[in-house]
Amino acid sequence: MMVGSYFSANWYRVAGLRPRLRRHVVVHRHVVRGDVWHVLQDDQTGGFFRITPAAYRFLAGLDGRHTVAEVWESVARRVGDDHLSQDDVIVFLGQLHRSDMLIGQDLPDLGELFDRSRSNAKRTVMSRVKNPLALRLPLFDPDKFLNRITPAFAWLLTPLGMALWLLLVGYGVVLAALNWPGLTHNIYDRVISLDTLLFFIVLYPLMKAVHELAHGVAVKAWGGQVHEMGIMFLVFMPVPYVDASAASGFRRRRRRAVVAGIGIMVELMLAALAMIVWAMAEPGLVRATAFNVMLIGGASTLLFNGNPLLRFDGYYVLCDALDIPNLGTRSNKYLFYLVQRYGFGKRDGDNPATARGERKWFVLYGVLSFCYRVFIMIMISLFVATKFFFIGVILACLSVTLTVLWPLWKGWRYVFHSRQLGQRQGRAKLVTLTLLGLVGLGLFAVPVLDATVSHGVVWTPTQGRLVASNSGFVDQVHAANGEQVDAGEPVITLRDPQLDARIATLEAEEREYRSQYNRLNLRDPGQARILAEQLERTSQSLAFWKGRQARNQVMAPQPGAVAMAGGESLPGKLVAEGTLLGYVFSDAPRLLEVLVPQDRINDIRYDTLEVSLRFPGALHQQLPGRILGVTPRAVDVLPSGVLSTEGGGPVFLDPEAEQPRPLNNYYVVRIGVEEPQGVWRAEERALVRFRHSPTPLGIQALRAIREVFLSQFDV
Length: 715
What we know:
Blueprint: H1 12-15, E1 20-21, E2 25-32, E3 35-42, E4 48-51, H2 53-60, H3 68-79, H4 86-98, E5 102-103, H5 110-129, E6 134-140, H6 143-153, H7 159-178, H8 180-184, H9 187-191, H10 194-221, E7 229-234, E8 237-242, H11 253-280, H12 285-305, H13 313-322, H14 327-343, H15 358-387, H16 389-416, H17 425-444, E9 447-458, E10 465-467, E11 472-477, E12 484-485, E13 490-495, H18 497-520, H19 525-550, E14 553-555, E15 560-564, E16 574-575, E17 580-585, E18 590-597, H20 601-606, E19 610-615, E20 618-630, E21 666-673, E22 685-696, H21 697-713
Helix pairs in contact: 6-10, 7-11, 10-11, 10-12, 11-12, 11-13, 14-15, 15-16, 18-19
């Protein structure tokens, strides 16, 4: 017997209706996390509608002859309390009607059918306009074409085909690992070059065409229908697409996952084949093409198609892997349910989590996907704005409006103008205003830590250099790294075997000439004078080469701490004349040259409260510093190559410049360290932190947005 909540005051509106499903609606039975669900598929519109077992029991009785009231009472007698309430039935029938799956007569109303098609077309157009970064334009029905090619490729969906795919991709991964230095050499310059852009424009649509045809073949191989293929403008780039939504009706979860992921698998296969070609080909057009195929197949898969946080292939694979259909929409509904239940106190809301384990996935996916969509939207808008400023700004405004502002406006109307909250509306208003006030205070009234972290390099003074005055082998290192020495104290001793042999020869000649001179000086004065001239020349040559030998001692040019350039590998090393062997740093202050981006230089100049630094090899040790000076304009050449990406630093270089010039504008800030500790190495990179006055997060965010516009668009 039904009581209370099972009845509805609006029941009379639907009780006498005799609806039934339209003839082109197909019912599929799915098992989700152990629960039986049914999926309604409209072959005409391509729409799908998932219903619970209780809703299916009610729907099964709608045959066009019995009224809604008769069917509801019949189900209630059979199953007891486990059935839909009258309010649930009204909502369910309304949803089916909006999905155009119900009809009230045996023969369809052609006028209604026409209006329904036109209404569906309008909704489809609006859904595409609401996503300006991925506009779709249907072109033709590919069903017949797919029927012809599917038999030739269907075997790839068998276990044998999957095994071959794994072998091929695995071999490509191994090749990539073995050739990793060659693949990644100067990778940034190669990616942003004009040649790469031209390759991308040509190859990306072709690879996407193969990708989308793979979706269609997979659907056809397992009995589905594909009736739409067209062009999707992905960030204004025309790429093909195929409507493979018929896979939602497949009963087997593995097949749905394969259809969703087959495009990713094809792109990875193409990337693996390209890797094999790249490894075998000589530098030239073929190798460049293979490299760009790998770049497109890998980067686009990781960032877009294979990323489950976006509504592309990876999302549908994740839904089937977790066995949670419609994960994105249900995640949003669950977050809204949590707000209603725990924020507004509405206990009778519909909980989208119907199976065990779904709640944690709804919260995690709902938050992460929203943040990632906003991030991608902003990055794409900025990219477009750098090329087409006006279009980029319009695109950014439209995207922000649809993604952020419109949902916020809908939430505001729900809280302050909707009657669905009933008696809870007062609490909802109070909670909403309180939350907005706290967020506003947190963003714009509560100061938090504000700091700039930049990379710097140990400055090496010219007067402190240890330079080899001769060529030779390093024989001895008299002072270790960090050891204190006095000015003029020997630090390194070189040895030149050829020089030593020459000096020994000259010494022997000198002794011989002197002995002969002493013997002939009284007996033959004329011959003695000749020997005296030879002896003088030999003595002069010997003095010259001994002077050169004395320069094998590399002395400390000033008192301070030694920093060897070669470290422990220096002894025994052959060095050429003029080779830099190390430095002697004066006791205090030690100096660093720090690169600061243009958008942060004013904060460094006018609002720096404290400077501290850490070396990567000793992050536990923090050293205090102070600003000694700032360059008046942006630098044209890096202070050291270790600050560039090629040297392990963060600064990208201009690929067109002959000298190591930063791609963006940087200023050099000179930092002095009064109390140096530990071992300082020549041209060692350091992390330098400039602490500024505490500033609210909202003001920091607005400043960051302004800095982005200044750096990217000069506005």
